[in-house]
Amino acid sequence: MESVSFYTIAEVAAHLKISQKSVRRYIASNKLNAVKIGGAYRIPVKALEAFINRKETSPRYDLLGGEVSCSERSPIIQSGEDVHWVNIQKEWDAPSNSDLTFC
Q1: 34: Cβ contacts below 8 Å, ≥ 6 apart
Q2: Pick from 12, 35, 37, 63: most CB atoms within 10 A?
Q3: Residue-wise burial string across 61-74, b where 16 or more C-beta atoms lie within 10 A, e elsewhere
């Protein structure tokens, strides 16, 4: 039988220099594989190595929903697109009370 080494949540947190709560969140989100032994989570050495060496597979998006690569930033406004500005100067200078005002 092959001997498998395990880390505790505290050891993983110390090694990665993050909180134990963050390690638990990674386990809960299935980003870090763990085994529950006797009511406590244990992280196999190979699972921690895979977690550290993983590549980000989920795409990242900008505020407008466009996909952004990690190596380069794409401009928010592409050339040829129209921008429609709204003048809010009057409301900015003299705000009125609303149902959301706490005065």
Answers
A1: 27, 41, 42, 43, 44, 47
A2: 12
A3: eeeeeeeeeeeeee
